[in-house]
Specification:
Structural class: alpha/beta
Bound molecules: NADP nicotinamide-adenine-dinucleotide phosphate
Radius of gyration: 22 Å
Shape: globular
Low-confidence stretches: none
Number of strands: 17
Largest sheet: 11 strands, mixed
Mean pLDDT: 94
Helix content: 40-55%
Strand order of the largest sheet: 4-3-5-15-14-6-7-13-10-12-11
Oligomer: single chain
Length: about 425
């Protein structure tokens, strides 16, 4: 913990009766530095957040940061990767931000990211994906993509309900399914359960519509594989349309009712697409899409595909949001081979912080950060990942790039 953190106490964010958050002028916000490159990108990002808040509000607002432990640092200091104290502090503070956490492959503890999502019921993953001028992209017109992906975060085959091949549980389930329903599953199969429920789909879809309305987005598209998986993905589509009609009927228009015509002014167009077709449409006609709403697995895939289309996940921010807690995070991993080198691109965490400030209602500071990142990338003094594709660019360190972003803030006075 930095010395200044002990001195600055901060105030707790509270929840209002209507479910919204009440943000004081000096909110206490816990952060998880993260493993690997977390130690590089966190200090760089924090410098940008503090500078943006200072530029936007002078001394009237300031975040009281409080470090909480998770991952390797927590293992070293407490012997457990996700201490109760970390969970308790995040629960009390409601809003937190985190760097990447390493997940051991095959052995060791399960993903801490999944554990956090489950513990706080962070049922909505939000990933805005847009182009920044100056980033080299594999497509001709990357600027045409500007989407916000809503991925359901706690259900689907991703929920982690699975048993390995040869286990007692897998064997019993295979035998039971055969006996009761006549389902033929090879005896040497591993088994995973896919489930999608009405209640969880409804609350998730509602969040996507609230976001679309608040941010003036033009369309909401449900993406699903309901033609094949009728009672999970197909039902997801049906329930999503129910939410649209029942709760947002006065502000939406269904694509099928437009019959190819232009939507009435101010209305959100609601449509759906089959997932595999969507992967080609988003590449061929990206400007036809805006807010995208998907179940867990396909949401994960489409987020990375979209990020690649605008130059890679190094620039993509993310948030995991529940009813009581929201955690904002870099979408890339801990990239251990670069740890401690002050080398990697901090933009993913920095833009996640901008999302957090926006969520808190501190939109002026969020805009400064977005404009600062835009300006820095355009100027061409960038981290190695962006510099390697641009002969005109100069490679700078992670911390230096953060300073470039701050220099790119437009003057507010
Ligand atoms: P990764 O850490 O994202 O790194 C893969 C590659 O992506 C890096 O070698 C680098 O590519 C590029 N990259 C990642 N972050 C970058 C940044 N900030 N700036 C520039 N380039 C960046 O993926 P991984 O190696 O598969 O995963 C490592 C660990 O992170 C695993 O334990 C995984 O489970 C975990 N992980 C955590 C999260 C999370 O906490 N949310 C998410 C994903 C993965 P080049 O070397 O080609 O430049």
């Amino acid at each position: 913990m930095y010395k200044a953190e002990k001195r600055m106490k901060g105030e707790l964010i509270r929840k209002a009766g209507n479910g919204s958050f009440i943000i004081p002028d000096t909110p206490l916000i816990p952060y998880i530095e993260g493993d690997g490159v977390g130690r590089d990108i966190w200090p760089a990002s924090r410098m940008v957040f503090d500078a943006a808040i200072q530029s936007a509000y002078g001394n009237a607002r300031k975040i009281a940061w409080r470090e909480v432990l998770a991952g390797e640092k927590a293992m070293k200091e407490t012997g457990t990767p996700l201490p109760d104290e970390t969970l308790d502090t995040i629960a009390r503070c409601h809003i937190a931000i985190k760097g990447p956490l390493t997940t051991p492959v095959g052995t060791g503890f399960r993903s801490l990211n999944v554990a956090l999502r489950k513990h706080f019921d962070l049922y909505t993953c939000i990933r805005p994906v847009r182009y920044f001028e100056g980033v080299v992209s594999p497509v001709k017109e990357p600027e045409k993509l500007d989407v916000v992906i809503f991925r359901e975060n706690v259900e689907d085959v991703y929920a982690g309900l699975e048993w390995p091949r040869g286990s007692k549980e897998a064997g019993e389930l295979i035998a039971d399914l055969k006996e009761r329903f006549g389902w033929q599953i090879p005896e040497d199969a591993g088994i995973g359960i896919k489930f999608i429920s009405e209640g969880n789909t409804r609350r998730f879809v509602k969040r996507a519509f609230d976001y679309a309305l608040k941010h003036g987005r033009k369309s909401v598209t449900f993406v699903h594989k309901g033609n094949i998986m009728k009672y999970t993905e197909g039902a997801f589509r049906e329930w999503a349309y129910h939410v649209a009609r029942e709760m947002y009927g006065d502000v939406i228009v269904l694509e099928e009712d437009l019959a190819g015509g232009r939507p009435p002014q101010g209305k959100i167009v609601v449509k759906d697409r089959i997932a595999d077709a969507m992967f080609q449409m988003i590449l061929l006609r990206p400007d036809e899409f805006d807010v995208l709403v998907l179940p867990n697995l396909n949401g994960d895939y489409l987020s990375d595909a979209c990020a690649a289309q605008v130059g890679g996940i190094g620039m993509a921010p993310g948030a995991n949001v529940g009813d009581d807690v929201a955690i904002f995070e870099a979408t890339h991993g801990s990239a251990p081979k670069y740890a401690g080198q002050d080398k990697v691109n901090p933009s993913s965490l920095i833009l996640s912080g901008a999302m957090m400030l926006d969520f808190m209602g501190w939109g002026e500071a969020a805009r400064l950060i977005e404009l600062g990142v835009e300006a820095a990338v355009k100027r061409g003094r960038v981290t190695y990942d962006l510099a390697r594709f641009r002969p005109d660019a100069e490679e700078v360190a992670c911390s230096e790039f953060a300073r470039e972003i701050i220099q790119g803030f437009p003057s507010l006075r």
